[in-house]
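thought: fold this chain, then report.
action: predict
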Amino acid sequence: MSLIRAAGPSAASPDLLHELLSTFIDALMGAEGDAICGAPDGQPSPNGTNSRNGYHHRDFDTRAGTIDVAIPKLRSGSYFPDWLVERRRRAEQAQRAW
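observation:
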């Protein structure tokens, strides 16, 4: 973060924003997947009923460009971030209205 401040606002590239956003989204979804599963990636839940099972990828359109989002898979149950679905619905509704 100090490198960004030292370089100044004109030095921030779209690629930097894209990478920061991608890293943040992946960390957020990883944490949500861990919370739903009850255990971190690669570990079974304490009661042994669930574990993480890799990722599936989806494109997520943002103002910074399209981001490949790694959505955690669970062995039992499912996880798909509501905020990702809602954003896509709003975008589709806006396209239909246009």
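thought: worth noting. The mean pLDDT is 76.
final: tokens above.
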